[in-house]
Q: What sequence folds into this?
């Protein structure tokens, strides 16, 4: 069984520890394991970024930790400790006690996540009413305070507005405010800035930074924007087809990726490519979750793949200080040619 | 750029002047209020060119696209497509025009009917344009071509949209837009739903198509790195107006408008070396389009705002080739190379634009 | 709000006039009422006198003009059958119907919310299956069965309640129990459906993520969102009841407007029929406005309402099922919104 | 793990080559829907062949054999459901009534469904004036006493099955009209409809291709609820003497006429009423099933078969237990 | 408040009702209580001889006329009648009953433009001449000789002179044993015993009328003790022993219109009579309470003949007659429309189907046409529909309230009678003779008329003389008679021993 990455750190640093998490989903085509043997930990006051292509199981992991999986999905194995309390063995009541106070979550879709029929004030204050037994009035003043904290102008009047009366950026901030209302130890933010423009994104990132430093909150940031990860995160955990393929500190992983997928991802960024040039992209597409091959999950798209990759699934192993990779050939990744040619060749077909 | 190799003089495919669109939205107890989603838009697209359209969410990008597609009726202004006003077309000629302009929608899920298969979706236009591929066999052949073109398998034709990933869905949308062989494709955030590696595939695909077929694109996105990569020219929108246009390089390297500058500055960079030293972080919220600020629309968030900004709507400033900025002269026909911005106090330097990199 | 009301009133005035004209003309197509009011051996002179007395000797258009002239003087004509003022008769019968309809709907809605919500908690579970079977049966049982069997069981065999009549609270039991079945059955299905879809919305997850109890999640977050389709259907069912629960009013001797209307049709008592239709049409129209207000109360997104055409423009801000015209009889729309996902 | 694989292979076995489950398999997956479908098929078969088989027996009166209670084998199979107030076989009459009932209720529902839905879809798609006028017309029909209409039509024309169908259809049109309009108004703002517009597709083609398939399940479910309503409405027309006329017989007519015997010979009214209720419930169950089966986002509920679902649950439970054990070690 | 308007005072239901109130449940609410409309069953059942009283009253059992507000009457020429009025009678408003009131009552009902129902029913277009001889004597003169004028007068309920002569009055002031207290429209009518009543005081201090249109509900109200008397029940209503049946004067018959084939052939009309098995209908459908009929009036009516034989049921003879007619060229397969009024009397639907079946057995083609009242009336009364797609056979229910066959035959059998499809000159002559006859002659003359119709005209196929059924609770005692359906004398009801 995997050990949490942060084992070397003082134990109290790790707010969240996830070990060997498996999540299954029922589909018409049978049961599918969408998250498989995922482990990571999030440290106090730091940001852990969960990276990976769309559909690789990032949101599932987050929901599993928060205990909010859809009815078709279920946790099939693994452990998650929040401050050394086992989240998966909790009953409903204990869960509810943890929710909000220990663990806040920001959902992917800000527009839909707010209840359209209640005022922002009511929804922001709800956590105080549930956990602190606050009166309506107290809850409202707490809500105003929260809104002020996340930088919403004129909170006293806006507190009575409804979600549809706010812009996307504001709604996203309100969701964050809601998640941090009770100063949880852990905040999971699932793509908090997709669909917002960069100026608003910058504002929100600023907000998360402040919260992190002020409240010593651990943040799990889910995104597929590598640039944001590079700028905001301390640690990164790269997922592929439900598995963790690489993890480590942002600096090392981004400068010295030791998994071909991470490397492929990094070279797909259009940032410095020139107009008209082909972008480097990883050839092929991720495996269907119901047909994950034995052996390495990345074998079909990997330039380094060889016989062993088809037979044996590589375990996550240390490849550098604080960096771990699930690749048989982790050492060769750095010397691997950028897959431009391969990509172009692939695209042309 | 690929098209430059062609000797044919550059032809303008689309010319938009003073396009305006107002929505009436219900508000308060007193009935409706006007929401100027488009407030005098001017732009042009040349053959084989990609025009980027960036701007804050809700600034009117999609509305512009929808109006150009005749899904919304504009309140004013003119649209010329190859010199023709599409809004004046009827019947056959309208259908012929429809064939030449297509759109890829923002949301790859919502724009595909979940009850149809990919094949049905892609060949749907042929039901209207029966003359294109009159026989079932021809249609099937074309479907195969299209699927191949966008990198899908022939067997995918029988799957329904929810069996595809976001990227694949977006490709279905692109295949559908291509099916009629259009001259101009409006791409409304075609890659925002995709992850990086798929995004790269789609962008490459679009690039290849442009090279092969010479189509023009209007490319709407708020991912600046993508815009920078794929477009020839960029128009920046703010609250229903285009506040700056210029070649991609000009706009990205030396923005004139403070809003453009803040966009460029705030854009996160993967490479720490490229990160600006002093980022511009805007204060305040995007004003409500129902109640836009007087004078310059950006003044409420602008760090350079002066009293005059609230009084007067700024005229366009033009940056000449030598770098000097002067008041734009509407009489002088605008050269495509010119960088134009609507601002009283345009940004003068990269440092002021918050783009200076700590070297 | 006032502009909105004014518009609604104007928009509804024309249909109201059309309804009256239609009723007026159609009623007179059902044959001469003279035979019903005169003895079988009445002579020709008596028939003529009768026609003259009731204005039936005039051409239809003249009769109609006179009728509308009368309406402006608030004179709705006189009943041929009882000789009373037609409007008075209709107005006297209406409260009884309204009270019955109101009570019935209140109970039906309450029960349906409880049962529907419980069923929605586990779609296709045992409870769901049972409640859907029961509600379907409730919605399709002939009402006079229930009425007569109810009298038999509760009034005669058990002696708990009076068989019929309007005296005392106990007298309400049977009529209400009989009437409640169809609205209850229909609403259970609608509310269950709406709840299923509401419970799969992201804001439910958000509420859970705050540590809200199931009770709070369902009762507060889901219910209010699921209420709109319920309101639509409840409105239509109420229209049905307001138009008169004929069978129940007949069997239980409930002095309501449904019975009055049927009697007027069968007795060709034109003035009373017209007064009844006018009254119920106005009531239905007010009900529709109330339903619109109900929407606004439930859902802030439709609150600043300003007519259908404009509202749709604001669709950016609105969910799919709220619109001015959308308080429709869409049992279905609702019940099915049930499981259908909005996403595709 | 083994059980998981088993479940997966069991699921696979039930599917066609393309991996999609056929409608028939999906029907079998839903036990209630299967029963409902079988029942409805029986009803339809009875309607088709019943009168030919039982016609004679349904009219044969026997005044000396009135109101005999059902389920008494001593009376012979023909009277297994009892005899009516004229000594006719209830069984035979119920069988013969099936045809008339369906011949009135089905066309009435269908006409209202088709006219109302097409009209509503059209109005909702085009919006604007067309929509407003249509809604006002619906308002008018809704606030019109339908019984008056019935009396007029049947007075001016004459009671016949066709006229009854006409009346029932007209008065129920607004229900579909309003539902279809609401759905269609919502659909016409969907992006895929916009996409179709950009190809120059004509409104009618869009309605046909994109709107109708989506609204159909909703409207069909509505129609099944209406089906029962129409059968009961027909019975109240019969009661006023303007419905189905003897010697024709429908369930509604039997219910209405049997009601005065409710206390002395309950079977006269309860049995045909039961037939109405069961048919309506069966139709509704089937419609609910169909709604799920045709909804791409819901279909999985039926594509998963019970066995594999159970196996899934069991396997996950076991896995969790094993994990727990491992964790403890 | 959550109660129906005005319901607070409505009589309380339940079995523990105070026993000084007599609770009656009727089939329908009276449209009005106007005295001059009292021949309408639903009006008359409430007011006649309970709230208002006539001058002369017919004994429903013996058929004899008896004094009520008039103590004696006589005429020398059958044209001018002199009535002596009762003294010491007080109206409910306290005023004295005098000749002026009697004159005003007759004048109002018969001579005015009010359009009273009773006028059309018993008097026709001709006016009566009235004279107030003294305070307690009135002279009434008919336009022509009228031997049954006293009988006609028995339909008039007396109201005070002050009663409006230009408008109908919904709540009359009468002289009867009960005084109208209040009428809660739609719910109930309450009356209380009139303390100054001239006759014997009724046993119940209060009376309360309600109405329910469902027979089974009325029956249930008796069983559950919510009402003491229920009218218009049928055996299916599950009333058990509490149902009391009585001959109600109503006769059911089929009227055949001879203007179309096959009824233009008397053989077919006879065949119809043979084909219908009246005895077994009466025995099975009506539980043996009704009596197979041979004529339109039941016993107790002047003119009813006990000796007239009921038409024999003979299916073979019916078939033979049809065959015979066919041979003679009659189109026996021409459709016959059996026109029936929905819910006119209990089991009418079944009766119609039996008749349809039996006639079909005889070889005729019969369509059943169930119609609501108003439509049915267009067939019942002249002018008859002409565009009918078949020969008309109307099922009619005739009740002779007056007790004299003249009220029947004039309408049903004369060539021009309002409800007569056809007639013959000979029959018309016989009827005219009977109308003018008095005493035993009158009886004999009418008997002749009925016999002649059965032998030579055959416009009617008589089915049955009906019986009505009242529900009477255990706490009261009442002996119904043939007019109980039209005139429920509450004063005759007593508390059960
Ligand atoms: N309700 C569901 N039913 C069936 N499959 C599901 C469901 N929810 C998620 N999945 C599948 O589970 C996998 C993981 O989904 P998840 O939402 O975790 O992806 P993600 O990494 O968050 O992607 P994105 O970046 O697009 O949000 C996907 O392949 C998805 O198709
Ligand atoms: N049908 C409509 N009715 C009313 N207002 C509308 C309508 N469509 C768009 N708007 C408004 O017009 C403005 C511009 O919207 P638009 O969708 O064009 O923005 P956008 O730039 O495409 O935003 P995004 O980046 O989020 O897609 C917004 O304020 C929006 O609320
Ligand atoms: Mg996600
Ligand atoms: Mg957009």
A:
């Amino acid at each position: 069984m995997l050990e949490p990455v942060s084992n070397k750190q003082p134990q109290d640093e790790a707010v969240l520890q996830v070990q060997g998490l498996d999540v299954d989903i029922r589909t018409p085509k049978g049961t599918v394991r969408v998250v498989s043997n995922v482990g990571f930990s999030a440290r106090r006051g730091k940001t852990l970024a969960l990276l990976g292509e769309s559909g690789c199981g990032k949101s599932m992991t987050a929901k599993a930790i928060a205990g909010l999986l859809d009815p078709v999905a279920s946790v099939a194995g693994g452990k998650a400790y929040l401050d050394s309390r086992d989240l998966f063995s909790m009953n409903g009541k204990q869960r509810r006690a943890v929710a909000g106070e220990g663990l806040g979550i920001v959902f992917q879709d800000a527009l839909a996540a707010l209840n359209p029929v209640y005022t922002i004030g009511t929804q922001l204050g709800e956590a105080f009413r549930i956990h602190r037994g606050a009166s309506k009035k107290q809850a409202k003043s707490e809500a105003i305070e929260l809104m002020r904290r996340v930088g919403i102008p004129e909170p006293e009047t806006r507190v009575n507005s409804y979600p549809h009366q706010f812009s996307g950026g504001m709604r996203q901030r309100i969701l964050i405010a809601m998640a941090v209302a009770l100063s949880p130890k852990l905040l999971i933010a699932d793509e908090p800035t997709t669909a917002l423009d960069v100026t608003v994104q910058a504002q929100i990132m600023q907000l998360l930074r402040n919260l992190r430093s002020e409240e010593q909150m651990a943040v799990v940031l889910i995104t597929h924007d590598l640039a944001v990860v590079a700028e905001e995160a301390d640690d990164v955990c790269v997922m592929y087809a439900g598995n963790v393929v690489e993890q480590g500190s942002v600096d090392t992983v981004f400068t010295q990726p030791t998994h071909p997928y991470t490397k492929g991802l990094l070279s797909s960024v259009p940032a410095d490519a020139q107009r008209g040039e082909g972008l480097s992209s990883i050839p092929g597409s991720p495996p269907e979750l119901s047909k994950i091959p034995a052996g390495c999950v990345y074998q079909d798209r990997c330039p380094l793949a060889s016989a062993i990759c088809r037979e044996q699934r590589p375990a996550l192993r240390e490849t550098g200080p604080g960096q771990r990779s699930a690749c048989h050939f982790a050492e060769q990744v750095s010397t691997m040619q950028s897959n431009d040619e391969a990509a172009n060749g692939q695209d042309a077909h | 750029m690929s098209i430059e190799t062609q000797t044919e003089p550059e032809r303008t495919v689309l010319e938009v002047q003073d396009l305006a669109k107002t929505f009436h939205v219900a508000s308060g107890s007193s009935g409706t209020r006007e929401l100027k989603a488009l407030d005098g838009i001017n732009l042009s697209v040349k053959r084989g060119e990609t025009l980027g359209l960036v701007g804050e969410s809700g600034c009117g990008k999609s509305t512009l696209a929808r109006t150009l597609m005749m899904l919304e009726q504009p309140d004013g202004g003119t649209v010329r497509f190859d010199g023709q006003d599409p809004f004046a077309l009827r019947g056959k000629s309208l259908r012929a025009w429809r064939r030449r302009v297509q759109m890829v929608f923002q949301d790859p899920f919502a724009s595909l009917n979940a009850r149809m298969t990919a094949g049905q979706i892609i060949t749907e236009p042929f039901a209207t344009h029966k003359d294109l591929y009159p026989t079932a066999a021809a249609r099937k052949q074309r479907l195969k071509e299209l699927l191949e073109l966008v990198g899908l398998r022939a067997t995918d034709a029988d799957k329904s949209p929810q069996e595809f990933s976001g990227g694949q869905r977006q490709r279905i949308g692109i295949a559908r837009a291509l099916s009629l062989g259009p001259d101009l494709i409006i791409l409304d955030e075609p890659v925002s739903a995709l992850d990086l590696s798929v995004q790269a595939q789609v962008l490459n695909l679009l690039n290849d198509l442009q090279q092969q077929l010479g189509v023009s694109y209007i490319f709407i996105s708020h991912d600046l790195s993508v815009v920078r990569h794929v477009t020839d020219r960029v128009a920046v929108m703010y609250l229903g107006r285009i506040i700056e246009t210029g070649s991609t390089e000009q706009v990205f390297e030396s923005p004139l408008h403070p809003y453009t500058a803040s966009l460029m500055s705030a854009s996160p960079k993967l490479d720490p070396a490229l990160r600006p030293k002093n980022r511009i972080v805007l204060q305040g919220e995007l004003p409500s389009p129902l109640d836009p600020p007087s004078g310059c629309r950006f003044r409420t968030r602008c760090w350079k705002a002066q009293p005059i900004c609230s009084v007067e709507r700024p005229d366009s400033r033009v940056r000449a080739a030598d770098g000097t900025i002067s008041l734009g002269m509407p009489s002088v026909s605008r050269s495509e190379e010119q960088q134009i911005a609507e601002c009283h106090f345009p940004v003068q330097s990269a440092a002021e634009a918050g783009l200076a990199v700590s070297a | 709000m006032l502009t909105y009301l004014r518009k609604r009133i104007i928009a509804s005035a024309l249909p109201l006039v059309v309804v009256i004209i239609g009723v007026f003309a159609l009623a007179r197509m059902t044959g001469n009422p003279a035979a019903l009011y005169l003895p079988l051996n009445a002579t020709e002179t008596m028939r003529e006198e009768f026609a003259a007395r009731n204005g039936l000797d005039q051409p239809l258009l003249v009769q109609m003009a006179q009728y509308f002239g009368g309406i402006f003087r608030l004179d709705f004509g006189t009943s041929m059958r009882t000789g009373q003022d037609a409007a008075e008769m209709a107005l006297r019968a209406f409260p009884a119907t309204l009270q019955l309809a109101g009570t019935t709907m209140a109970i039906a809605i309450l029960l349906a919310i409880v049962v529907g919500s419980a069923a929605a908690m586990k779609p296709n579970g045992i409870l769901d299956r049972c409640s859907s079977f029961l509600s379907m049966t409730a919605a399709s049982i002939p009402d006079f069965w229930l009425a007569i069997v109810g009298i038999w069981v509760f009034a005669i065999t058990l002696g708990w309640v009076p068989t019929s009549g309007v005296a005392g609270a106990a007298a309400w039991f049977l009529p209400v129990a009989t009437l409640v079945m169809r609205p209850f059955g229909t609403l259970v299905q609608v509310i269950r459906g709406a709840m299923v879809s509401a419970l799969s919305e992201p804001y439910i997850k958000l509420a859970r993520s705050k540590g809200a109890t199931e009770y709070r999640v369902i009762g507060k977050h889901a219910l209010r969102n699921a209420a709109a389709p319920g309101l639509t259907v409840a409105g239509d069912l109420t229209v049905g009841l307001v138009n008169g629960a004929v069978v129940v009013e007949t069997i239980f001797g409930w002095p309501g407007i449904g019975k009055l209307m049927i009697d007027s049709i069968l007795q060709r008592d034109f003035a009373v029929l017209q007064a009844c239709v006018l009254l119920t049409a106005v009531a239905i129209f007010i009900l529709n406005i109330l339903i619109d207000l109900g929407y606004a109360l439930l859902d802030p997104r439709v609150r600043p309402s300003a007519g259908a055409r404009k509202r749709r423009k604001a669709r950016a801000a609105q969910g799919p099922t709220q619109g001015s015209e959308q308080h429709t009889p869409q049992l279905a729309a609702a019940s099915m919104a049930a499981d259908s996902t909005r996403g595709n | 793990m083994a059980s998981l694989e088993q479940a997966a292979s069991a699921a696979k076995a039930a599917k066609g080559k393309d991996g999609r489950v056929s409608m028939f398999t999906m029907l079998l997956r839903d036990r209630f829907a299967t029963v409902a479908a079988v029942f409805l098929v029986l009803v339809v078969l009875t309607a088709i062949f019943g009168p030919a088989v039982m016609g004679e027996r349904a009219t044969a009166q026997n005044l000396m054999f009135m109101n005999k209670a059902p389920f008494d084998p001593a009376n012979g199979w023909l009277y297994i459901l009892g005899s009516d107030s004229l000594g006719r076989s209830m069984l035979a009459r119920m069988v013969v009534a099936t045809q008339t009932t369906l011949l009135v209720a089905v066309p009435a529902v269908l006409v209202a469904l088709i006219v109302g839905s097409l009209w509503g879809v059209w109005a909702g798609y085009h919006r604007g004036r067309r929509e407003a006028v249509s809604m006002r017309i619906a308002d008018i029909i809704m606030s019109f006493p339908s019984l008056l209409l019935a009396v007029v039509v049947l007075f001016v024309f004459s009671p016949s099955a066709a006229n009854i169908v006409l009346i029932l259809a007209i008065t129920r049109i607004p229900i579909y009209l309003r539902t279809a309009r609401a759905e269609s108004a919502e659909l016409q703002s969907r992006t895929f409809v916009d996409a179709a517009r950009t190809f120059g597709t004509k409104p009618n083609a869009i309605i046909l291709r994109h709107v109708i398939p989506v609204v159909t399940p909703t409207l069909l479910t509505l129609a099944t609820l209406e089906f029962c309503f129409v059968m009961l409405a027909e019975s109240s027309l019969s009661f006023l003497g303007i419905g189905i006329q003897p010697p024709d017989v429908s369930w509604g007519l039997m219910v209405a006429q049997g009601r005065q015997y409710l206390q002395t010979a309950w079977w006269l009214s309860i049995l045909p009423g039961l037939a109405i209720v069961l048919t309506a419930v069966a139709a509704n169950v089937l419609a609910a099933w169909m709604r799920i089966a045709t909804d791409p986002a819901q279909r999985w509920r039926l594509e998963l078969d019970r066995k594999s679902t159970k196996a899934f649950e069991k396997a996950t439970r076991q896995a969790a237990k094993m994990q727990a054990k491992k964790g403890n070690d | 408040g959550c109660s129906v308007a005005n319901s607070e005072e409505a009589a309380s239901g339940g079995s523990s009702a105070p026993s000084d109130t007599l609770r009656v449940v009727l089939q329908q609410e009276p449209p009005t209580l106007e005295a001059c409309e009292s021949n309408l069953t639903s009006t008359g059942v409430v007011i006649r001889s309970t709230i208002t009283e006539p001058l002369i009253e017919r004994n429903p059992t013996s058929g004899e006329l008896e004094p009520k507000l008039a103590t004696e009457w006589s005429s020398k020429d059958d044209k001018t009648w002199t009535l002596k009025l009762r003294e010491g009678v007080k109206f409910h408003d306290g005023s004295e009953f005098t000749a002026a009131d009697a004159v005003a009552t007759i004048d109002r009902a018969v001579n005015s433009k009010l359009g009273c129902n009773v006028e059309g029913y018993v008097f026709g277009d001709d006016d009566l001449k009235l004279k107030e001889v003294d305070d307690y004597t009135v002279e009434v003169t008919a336009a022509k000789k009228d031997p049954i004028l006293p009988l006609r007068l028995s339909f008039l309920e007396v109201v005070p002179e002050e009663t409006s002569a230009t408008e109908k009055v919904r709540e009359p002031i009468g002289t009867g044993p009960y005084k109208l207290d209040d009428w809660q429209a739609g719910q109930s009518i309450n009356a209380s015993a009139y303390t100054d009543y001239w006759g014997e005081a009724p046993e119940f201090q209060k009376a309360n009328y309600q109405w329910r249109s469902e027979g089974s509900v009325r029956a249930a109200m008796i069983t559950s003790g919510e009402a003491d008397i229920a009218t218009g029940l049928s055996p299916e209503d599950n009333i058990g022993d509490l149902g009391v049946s009585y001959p109600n004067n109503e006769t059911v018959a089929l009227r055949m219109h001879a203007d179309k084939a096959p009824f233009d052939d008397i053989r077919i009309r006879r065949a119809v009579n043979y084909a219908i098995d009246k005895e077994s209908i009466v025995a099975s459908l009506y539980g043996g309470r009704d009596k197979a009929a041979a004529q339109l009036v039941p016993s107790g009516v002047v003119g009813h003949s006990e000796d007239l034989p009921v038409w024999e049921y003979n299916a073979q003879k019916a078939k033979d007659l049809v065959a015979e007619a066919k041979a003679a060229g009659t189109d026996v397969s021409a459709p016959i429309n059996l026109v029936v009024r929905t819910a006119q009397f209990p089991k009418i639907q079944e009766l119609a189907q039996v008749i349809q079946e039996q006639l079909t057995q005889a070889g005729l083609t019969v369509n059943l046409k169930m119609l609501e009242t108003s439509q049915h009336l267009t067939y019942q009364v002249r002018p008859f529909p002409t565009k009918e797609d078949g020969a008309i056979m109307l099922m009619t229910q005739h009740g002779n309230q007056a007790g004299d066959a003249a009220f029947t035959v004039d309408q049903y059998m004369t060539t021009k009678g309002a409800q007569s499809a056809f007639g013959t000159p000979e029959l018309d002559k016989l009827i005219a003779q009977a109308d003018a006859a008095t005493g035993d002659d009158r009886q004999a003359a009418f008997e002749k008329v009925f016999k002649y119709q059965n032998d030579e005209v055959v416009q009617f196929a008589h089915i049955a003389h009906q019986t009505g059924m009242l529900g009477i609770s255990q706490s009261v005692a009442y002996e119904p008679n043939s007019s109980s359906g039209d005139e429920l004398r509450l004063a005759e009801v007593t508390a059960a021993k």
